[in-house]
Amino acid sequence: MLLLEVISGERLAKPERGKMRVHKISNVNKALDFIASKGVKLVSIGAEEIVDGNVKMTLGMIWTIILRFAIQDISVEETSAKEGLLLWCQRKTAPYKNVNIQNFHISWKDGLGFCALIHRHRPELIDYGKLRKDDPLTNLNTAFDVAEKYLDIPKMLDAEDIVGTARPDEKAIMTYVSSFYHAFSGAQKAETAANRICKVLAVNQENEQLMEDYEKLASDLLEWIRRTIPWLENRAPENTMQAMQQKLEDFRDYRRLHKPPKVQEKCQLEINFNTLQTKLRLSNRPAFMPSEGKMVSDINNAWGGLEQAEKGYEEWLLNEIRRLERLDHLAEKFRQKASIHESWTDGKEAMLQQKDYETATLSEIKALLKKHEAFESDLAAHQDRVEQIAAIAQELNELDYYDSPSVNARCQKICDQWDNLGALTQKRREALERTEKLLETIDQLYLEYAKRAAPFNNWMEGAMEDLQDTFIVHTIEEIQGLTTAHEQFKATLPDADKERQAILGIHNEVSKIVQTYHVNMAGTNPYTTITPLEINGKWEHVRQLVPRRDQALMEEHARQQQNERLRKQFGAQANVIGPWIQTKMEEIGRISIEMHGTLEDQLNHLRQYEKSIVNYKPKIDQLEGDHQLIQEALIFDNKHTNYTMEHIRVGWEQLLTTIARTINEVENQILTRDAKGISQEQMNEFRASFNHFDRDHSGTLGPEEFKACLISLGYDIGNDAQGEAEFARIMSIVDPNRLGVVTFQAFIDFMSRETADTDTADQVMASFKILAGDKNYITVDELRRELPPDQAEYCIARMAPYTGRDAVPGALDYMSFSTALYGESDL
């Protein structure tokens, strides 16, 4: 009963003091009733067994008491008592890497779990860093001694028993550990209380900081509004558009740069205020009341005043800019019109005062009169602009423009100049009309001179150009034509000399008239720039060029005769060599198609034929020499032959290439015959079939011709899908590049492969399978053991790893390697 009172903390019924068996049984029943009242079910435990000293029953009851009152109250995250205690131990020892609590027996054998619990709550009691996992006795004794001395936890366990037992008693360990839980629970409650106080104080401090921030932000924002409103209410006007535009730009900077941060501050202020009030309400604190004049409503009112002033300032700026813009527009319009007028009148007074008509020709006088008439029309048109300039100046004066004095001075200068231009215009017209009558008499003679001098001058220039022109001819007929034209030109020279003398007579008559009437002729003939001196000089030049042209034509005639001899010489040789090459090409073509006898006989015949062709080379070289002479003489065409040296060269090279290729085909046929064991009769049969279906004698067969040829040789190719697939396979063999044609050599290779006994991929795979011991793969050691070294390494370097289900490390795939050897897959 005393144990129950101590462990439960409650008072039990008063025990009986007698020492008789009946008294003992009565006291034990009271204890059992108390235990049952706490919801503990006692199975097969009676008072008589306890009084009689039944050790098993007694220990079972004591464990039930401990479990109910010392352990059952432990609860972590709604788990059972045992699980809750284990979870508490795991969480407390989690930071210790060498501690792993999974149960209440072997997890505690090294003693580090007990030391970790003590160090976690009272780190000053144990130097945990000095503990070793391999010294469990020291660890356990340290934990038990410290728990007894400083935590008032009695030694319930023996260190040596725990270490010496394979599985320590779970109930004993759990009972002892529960003592640590109860010992540290008080400290945990104090820690929780401290945390609660800290949390409350932290909330309070944060709220106070938010209040201070609000007060400071509100003060700064109100101060900025107070400073900004007077600037927005300033209505001092400016005289210039530039100054007003600067004010507008300052206002835009205010809108773009200065105001947005303040708008953000105002928004942040309201957010902070609402956040603060929410936090105060959630933490059961009284609402925040800002200082006088710093309420959100006060700030909104001040902000509204700012925006009202801002709106009024913007309207004033725009109206003032419109007013100045009107003045500037008028002033700019005045300046533009004045500048245009001044630019137009610039030099006009000097022009009207010129005496240019005194030395002018008749045509120039007439042109000056027309030009003066146009000027008078232009002058009348500018009258409206002068009137507009005066009207704009008057309007600027009425609007009190700040620069009116300079406008008035400029306007007066323009009006005075305009009056002077009118007087000078009338005076110049009279002088021009008087001079015009004096020059009309001479004009007709000048005109007649010009009409006859111009064509004669053109004739002389054309003649000089023709006589000095560098002629390029290629035939003797062309030079004969040039000589005939030159003789015709020389026959026209006497008539040309008579025309020259007549033109010079007209010029002499003009000179007599000028001297007789003392006419001031400052200029030359207005209708032409051709002078008598030029006419005489060009005529003399023409007379000198005629004999030079005679000599040049004679020299060119001799050169063309030499070129004609070279053409004939080249043409005679080319007309022989060209057909010879063509004939030889055709003969080789017939030889390659209509070969008779054995392949060796055909080869000997072709080599003798090749030798005869090579012996023809000196004639080609001789033709090259003649061609070089023609090139040096710059002869580009030859009517005596249709062959060029390029045609001869290409034909000669094709002839040599064709005979060499034909010899090579026969050599390859011999190699194929010997390698595949094909008889001469088979070769002849193959050649006859190939030639039969090569109807265009091109030396190749098309797909349909090839198919017909195979059928004629007994090859079974059906017209169904299977037959088409088989023929496609054959075409991939004989025409791997997909050119659409089959050569005779490819045809021979295919037929020899079909008729001869050759190795296949399946045979090679079967051989590899024998070397591999009937496995689907082969190893490196087997290859090196069964094959020569170089061939073994060749296979190892090219065989892919085997990936089948029965693969072993280092297995190689000999099947894909075998198919790749015969082109049925990639190697």
According to DSSP, the number of beta strands is 4
Rounded radius of gyration (Å): 65 Å
Structural class: mainly alpha
The fraction of residues assigned to DSSP E strands is: under 5%
Number of helices: 29
Distance separating the two termini: 94 Å
Mean pLDDT: 82
Shape: flat
Strand order of the largest sheet: 1-2
| Low-confidence segments | none
Helix content percent band: over 70%
Major sheet, described briefly?
2 strands, antiparallel
Structural commentary:
α26 (761-771) packs antiparallel against α29. The model has no long low-confidence stretch (mean pLDDT 82). It is built from 29 helices and four strands. The two termini are 94 Å apart. The radius of gyration is 65 Å and the shape is flat. The strands form two sheets. The protein has a two-stranded antiparallel ribbon. The protein is mainly alpha-helical. Keywords: Actin-binding, Calcium, Coiled coil, Cytoplasm, Metal-binding, Repeat. Belongs to the alpha-actinin family. InterPro entries: Actinin_actin-bd_CS, CH_dom, CH_dom_sf, EF-hand-dom_pair, EF-hand_Ca_insen, EF_Hand_1_Ca_BS, EF_hand_dom, Spectrin/alpha-actinin.
